[in-house]
Amino acid sequence: MDDVLDSANMADAWDRVQRNKGAPGPDARTIEETARFLKVSWPELKEELRAGSYQPGPVRTVHIPKGKGKYRMLGIPNVVDRLIQQAIHQVLSPHYEKDFSPSSFGFRPGRNAWQAIEQAHDYVKQGYTTVVDIDLEKFFDQVNHDILMARLARRIQDKRLLGLIRRYLQSGMMMDGLVSQRAKGTPQGSPLSPLLSNILLDELDKELEARGHRFCRYADDCQVYVKSPRAGHRVKESMTAFLETRLKLPVNRSKSRVVAASRSSFLGYGFLGMANPRIRCSTETVKRFKRRVRQLTRGHDREAIGVKLARLDRYIRGWASYFRLAKTHRLFADLDGWIRSRLRMCLMKQWFKPRTRVRKMIELGLPVDEARGYSQHKRWWFLAQLHHTRFLMNNHWWRDQGFRGVNFYMNRFANT
Questions:
Q1: Residue range 32-43, pLDDT digits in tens
Q2: What is the pTM of this model?
Q3: How high is the mean pLDDT of the chain?
Q4: What's the CA gap between 6 and 97, in Å, rounded?
Q5: Bridge partners for 215 per DSSP
Q6: How far is CA 260 from the centre of its chain?
Q7: Which residues pair with 266 in a beta bridge?
Q8: Cβ neighbours, 10 Å, residue 294
Q9: Are the C-beta atoms of residues 347 and 300 closer than 8 Å to each other?
Q10: How many CA atoms does the CB half-sphere of 106 hold within 13 Å?
């Protein structure tokens, strides 16, 4: 606890909390308001922490859409508690980090999802083309406090710190003004949660290493790579038994599966071909991308096309930055063509009146007699796909309007 409360450590923690920004917790204090509060109250809070009597505040519950009508529950602690948890994280992380598995990539310094995908790609190239995908059912909501605290007590001797971590684990969840106590789980969204999850799941990593398996784990997303479906089913059963009996973590059997690497999905990526496998975006990733682009290219809202293109460009740039490892340029070219069709349809919807469409097509260079044909239909996709529409609003025209596209950013990020 003395290391946690060290002035330099607390200053670093406060800098990190400020950089991360974030919304207020249940006490409604912003970061700026918390800074003023701490100038007055920090000596008292520090003594409570030293004495082991500090009581964390509840955690504000927020539901984030995951798609398909599902939500991920996040917990937002008060800024003061985020500060203390960040200070604890900075002290504990170096002690645990050096012993974590090299096949664990999530929430660790110097490690990222791209490294996990590249290691998985290496396994597939070596002939480990069957994937065991174990789905932990709502992992962060199911963490057993007693098992986690037992793992922490193996290294942490300070009972004040152990008691504080347990109180953070048990702090109530506030929803609609009501606070419910938590008997298990660690809320996603707190600075300490990722480290605690890695400490607990490190036991799974050590078990897989002891059995000689090749695997990649990113937080609670873990895949094992074997050479045959028979071996895959055997590994799946043994992993399920280990997780449910040793770590008390329920496995979602309906989603856990043994599949060929070409049909697997890991962190939004997949693989194409087995003889010389290439990294690709998973099928679900492409579906989510198209769903979001449809939302960004609605036409009936009459929003200026420049505003839409700027918002679309930000989304595509961020998407391409993450999926830069994918080597499927034909897919990206097809996506760009589809997006341009969406944008042409968006313009047709905005040019709602027949005379407006005719006038706009004439302005683009279409002869008057041919432009009059655009007054006959309100089938927007049909109009967007017409030869004249595609010819006049071609790739160069859209580039002049500010549309860069997926391929442009993929080429930019390819060597970074």
A1: 999 999 999 999
A2: 0.89
A3: 91
A4: 21
A5: 224
A6: 24
A7: 269
A8: 10
A9: no
A10: 19
